[in-house]
Amino acid sequence: MNGYAVAARPAGYGALAFGALIAAYFAILTLVSGWQFTVDQFADFWYYIVPLGAGFGIQVALFVYLRHVVRGHHGGGVVAATGTTSTAAMISCCAHYLVNVAPVIGATGVVALLAQYQVQFFWVGLAFNAAGILYIGRKVILARRHA
Fold this sequence. Notes:
Helix content: over 70%
Structural class: mainly alpha
Number of helices: 6
Radius of gyration: 18 Å
Distance between the termini: 17 Å
Strand content: under 5%
Low-confidence stretches: 74-83, 92-102
Largest sheet: none
């Protein structure tokens, strides 16, 4: 396999992961609060949501590349951090819109807490994203040195 194909595969998985995370954001928020509200929220917070999705995509691409390097040279698997935190941050930041159904499940206090700290949840997600990228990036560098 040529070098381009090896590089394209992780990038493709990263792009797919980015798209899946953004799609999950739109799907969940639309189910909870409707399409127009989702579009308005995305317009208001795109500068958090897009980097969260991109960070997740980068982590997936690095993980796929790392798995290729390790399998290609060592024949084994590797455990690395994933972008699950990105999904959790994007969903939790918007979970306060569950207020429409919260009284039914008795979670009004939790919803109010999430609503009060929405932007902070975005920042936490971005911090975890950066940490995940650094962690997997370090693993890639170490694996390439040993390869």
